[in-house]
Design goal:
Helix content: 25-40%
Largest sheet: 6 strands, antiparallel
Shape: elongated
Oligomer: single chain
Length: about 160
């Protein structure tokens, strides 16, 4: 290679290095699965758990994240211990009952079955300036059936 050819390659090499530096400096988000997202919301580790059933509005009927969804997850023994140490035992207190999808007032596919031995979790995902009035708003609830190691995660977004 002659000197002129080498001089022409230098700008191309520098450009290639700059492109590589720019592309690697962006924080590319990790693609997460549904159990990762639910685990983050519920503040538990669901790595060894398996989703068994998902009920939600079809995509064409949803406006962004509007509407209910119910996910049933088969939990591991590790998750069982974590839930029992972090969540509150059933029954759900009367002031939160409206937020939980129990009973006939809820469409069957979104209904959490009656569980006698288990634990529950509740999180209000509304902004601070919105007063929560169940069953409206943005919230997530979960009920854990400790006899069958089943977690029922219900999420509602009404605005």
């Amino acid at each position: 290679m002659e000197k002129d050819e080498k001089r022409q390659l230098i700008p191309l090499i520098l450009l290639l290095i700059a492109i590589i530096i720019i592309l690697t400096s962006f924080n590319i988000p990790k693609i997460t699965n549904r159990t990762d997202v639910i685990g983050d919301i519920l503040e538990i580790n669901l790595d060894q758990c398996k989703i068994e059933l998902i009920h939600e509005l079809p995509f064409y009927m949803k406006f962004v994240d509007n509407g209910p969804s119910l996910t049933t997850i088969k939990c591991s023994k590790k998750t069982d211990k974590e839930i029992k140490s972090k969540w509150k035992p059933l029954p759900v207190p009367p002031d939160l009952e409206k937020a939980f999808p129990f009973g006939e007032q809820v469409e069957e596919k979104y209904r959490i079955p009656n569980i006698e031995k288990g634990y529950y979790f509740y999180i209000d995902r509304n902004s601070d300036d919105y007063k929560f009035q169940p069953p409206d708003g943005r919230y997530s609830v979960a009920v854990y059936d400790s006899e069958n190691c089943l977690l029922y995660y219900y999420s509602m977004d009404t605005y």
